[in-house]
Amino acid sequence: MKKLFIILSLFTTIASAQQKTISMNDAFMNSALMPQNLKYLQWLPDGVHYSYVGKKNAEECLIISSAKSKNDTVLYAAALNPGVKSLPIFSWLSNEELLFNDGANYKALNYKSKITSTKLVIKDNAANQEWNADKTAMAYTVDNNLYYSNSEKSVSITNETNKDIVNGQAVHRNEFNILKGIFWSPSNDKIAFYRMDQTMVTDYPLVDISSTPAKLNNIKYPMAGQASHEVSVGVYSIRAAKTISLKIAGPKDQYLTNVAWSKNGKSIFVAVVSRSYHEMNLNEYDANTGEFVKTLFTEKDEKYVEPNEPMIFLSNGNFIWHSERDGYRHLYLYSKEGKLVKQITSGNWVVVDFLGLDAKEKTAYYTSTESSPINRDLYSVDLKTGKRTKLTSELGTHAITLNTQATSFIDNYSNTETPRVIQLVSTKGAKEKSLLVSTNPLNGYSLGEMNISSIKAADGKTDLFTRIFKPTNFDATKKYPVVIYVYAGPHVQLISNSWLGGANLWFQVMAEKGYIVYTVDSRGTMFRGRDFEQATHRNLGKVELADQLKGVDYLKSLSYVDTNRIGVHGWSFGGFMTTTMMTKANKVFKVGVAGGPVIDWSMYEIMYTERYMDTPNDNPEGYKESNLLNFADQLKGRLLMIHGTVDDVVVWQNSQAFVKKCVDKGVLLDYFMYPGHPHNVKGKDRVHLYNTITRYFDEHL
């Protein structure tokens, strides 16, 4: 790691009678305690002007401005659309037209003429909506079928009567960053789409108790080692009103990822990943016939490959590819034939997001962790020389919106001392305009001190980031109980150089109650490179537990920690880790609250589990050691397990099986369920959830 820095206290611990406390309702429902923001902030198509929704004279309005504007254009919602007090979510069709949905159809509103016209009529219950490039037509799904509509007609592209065959939706349970199933060609004349056949996948029952009698809702849930769904890619020609399928060779249960069109619309590219995850072939197919053209290149890894970004094409046909082949996620330039031209970025840091190219395609823009794994900064890189330039100056977490010409960007950032700053910045480096400097929404509240630091992992050499919240009115001569908040799984980083250090206000609620709240991002988490994440391969829970216990060793070194009162809480993978820590380290932890936990990885979905664990047949020892049913009799402390009854991510069977095993072994366990809730308990019920969690620690820790 190039840089490792300590971020010291952002909050004072000095309390007074006038200072307020944060209630649980405040922590999850009071938006006034969140940093200020600019609603619907976005660039106009000209890349010069930007807009957002704000309030003037207590009325909601659309504000349009630019870096050089001295006077903003202010358009009140009621004037734009009489009788309306609030503007809907919208995008820009042109520099004068807004596009929005009125709840039934899409409308275009010219803010200068105040004229509203119907842009598109689509079918009821349309989901997975994808506009073409010029927003003259849309492809979407209704139930399991795919449709296409323009201003003149609506066409049914598929007519599947079997509900287990799904078209136009994300596949492979959203792994590989697959967020959609519809892909328009650059010329808007073809639509590529996923077709997912789930008929071979076993039904999994969820029970809906909102009616009497309760209703059965079967879902398709492919568990590790079992039959997986079969995916193909269709291509619909609007002119010919005909669909062809890409002729993708290989097993039916392989993964078809990162679908991309060539700039001329003649080819479609698919990154085909073997079910074993050991190999990826980047294949080209003829968009007119579906015929296989060639494999551009192959990537292999003895543990797993995981392509998460499609090709980024240059106008000459060359393309940019993301890869972790050197140990860190970097950008590579390829010729259109698939020959490596050069590695564009390199170093012991991770490219997080590719944001775009300049008009001449000489410079690429991306965010990365180069300054620190807990920072996000914007960089530019010269594609010819490889010279990198850092474009964000303040340390912290920067969310970037680049304009279409890549001449300016909206920089929305925070750090541990800054709630939020939004500014316009030139890609040449000059700050052009300040749009927002948020006040501290927690001024006047009694808060605990927060500190980000580091410890060594269990391997004795790897640095791990840690975060600690100390109790309000902290007194180093006292002894305090600790709650460790844990996730520790892939694709998550809990600690960042951002407001509250990446935490939420529940941590401050606990600080008010006199708890220390501690977090370690152990090996297996993201943004630290391939080897860091793959350290847990085939043995989920083992390395993570060892690293979490190193965090406990640090806590035990602090004179103000009551080492007899250490608890742990986490959800999902964090629920798995909480249960792991309460059973496999039962002398360390007194109390745990495990939410939505995976208990037996053979009951979790194929696409995630087999990447990190291989199949149960290939890795029986790993599945045995990570199966917490085998360790239920080692539970000594107080453990509360919580689950949503219609969880379709970590199915309810996991925690129920653990309860059954505890009953069989005569082990006492506390349990709470949230009827009708899926994997996460959201809305007002989240307040109830965290009151439940907090009360459990209050009573037993």
CATH class of the largest domain: Alpha Beta
Corresponding CATH architecture of the largest domain: 3-Layer(aba) Sandwich
Number of helices: 10
What is the molecular shape? globular
Walk me through what this model shows.
- The chain is mainly beta.
- The chain folds into 3 domains: 270 residues, Alpha/Beta hydrolase fold, catalytic domain (Rossmann fold, 3-Layer(aba) Sandwich); 114 residues, no CATH class; 154 residues, 8 Propeller (Methanol Dehydrogenase, Chain A).
- Helices cover 13% and strands 36% of the residues.
Topology:
Layout: H1 24-29, E1 39-43, E2 49-56, E3 59-66, E4 73-76, H2 77-80, E5 90-92, E6 97-101, E7 106-110, E8 115-120, E9 127-131, E10 137-142, E11 145-150, E12 154-156, E13 165-167, E14 182-184, E15 190-197, E16 203-208, E17 215-220, E18 230-237, E19 242-245, E20 255-261, E21 267-273, E22 279-286, E23 292-300, E24 312-313, E25 319-323, E26 330-334, E27 340-343, E28 351-357, E29 363-368, E30 377-382, E31 388-390, E32 397-402, E33 408-415, E34 418-426, E35 431-437, E36 450-456, E37 463-469, E38 480-485, H3 506-512, E39 516-520, H4 530-534, H5 542-556, E40 561-571, H6 573-584, E41 591-595, H7 606-613, H8 620-626, E42 638-644, H9 653-665, E43 670-674, H10 685-700
Parallel strand pairs: 38-39, 38-40, 40-41, 41-42, 42-43
Antiparallel strand pairs: 1-2, 2-3, 3-4, 5-6, 6-7, 7-8, 9-10, 10-11, 11-12, 13-15, 14-15, 15-18, 16-17, 18-19, 20-21, 21-22, 22-23, 24-25, 25-26, 26-27, 28-29, 29-30, 30-31, 32-33, 33-34, 34-35, 36-37, 37-39
